[in-house]
Amino acid sequence: MELSLFCYRRGNSILHKANAGAKIIFLFAFSFFVFWGKAPERASEIFTKTIIIRTAAAFFTSAILFLLAGANFKSLKALRFVLFIGIFFTILKMIGSPIDGLASGLLYTIRFFASAWAAQTIYETTSMVQIQEALRLPLVVSLALNFLPQIFFEWEKINLAARARIPSKAKKSFAKNFYIKLYELQTLLFVMIEKAERVRKAVSNRQ
User: Fold this and answer.
1) pTM of the model
2) End-to-end CA distance of the chain, in Å?
3) Spatial separation of the C-alpha atoms in residues 102 and 107, rounded to whole Å
4) Residue 131: which of 115, 116, 121, 143 has the closest Cα?
5) What kind and span of H or E run contains 201?
6) Exposed (0-12), middle (13-18) or buried (19+): which is 49, by Cβ within 10 Å?
7) How confident is the model over 2-45, as pLDDT tens digits?
8) Is the C-alpha dihedral spanning 133, 136, 140, 142 positive or negative?
9) pLDDT per residue over 147-158, tens digit each?
10) Helix axis angle, 139-165 relative to 128-135, nearest 10°?
11) Exposed/middle/buried for 167, CB within 10 Å: 0-12, 13-18, 19+?
């Protein structure tokens, strides 16, 4: 089974052994570094030395984190949604100005991928219990952070179940695709409500 987005995996890598609090603080600082400032819109503004160095630094930082985490290439499959979003965003940007739109879309995709790659690497090497203990978070905040990877994990299972029930060669119209996604979102909502209720009862019993 492929690794879900932001899902913790056990390991003994260098990044697994690093301090959880330091990793989370680094992730916030890194995300701020990647997206800080006004995003350039024109190709002449994008292909400058400053932007290129800054973008390359963000990408290679994520690559180094990936290597320190044990270079689990299966986890990269969970980031394929970034490419789809980047392609869609680039197409929209190219409608008004093809050259500037293409440059702006590529810059956005690379930045988005770098930040998502870093987040994926940090979260797959840091459990929610480690984060809570390192940052001394209140129970409510810890549960909220724990539900973020749970949402992606459950969505992955629901999506796989839906695809397994539909023949791969079957043609699907836009309306049918929309109905399937709506059904998946409804199922996800019910599953997360059920999980939240179980957690609430567990916390209540402990108190």
Assistant:
1) 0.65
2) 36
3) 9
4) 143
5) helix 174-206
6) exposed
7) 456 667 788 889 999 898 888 988 988 998 888 887 777 788 88
8) negative
9) 666 666 666 667
10) 160
11) exposed
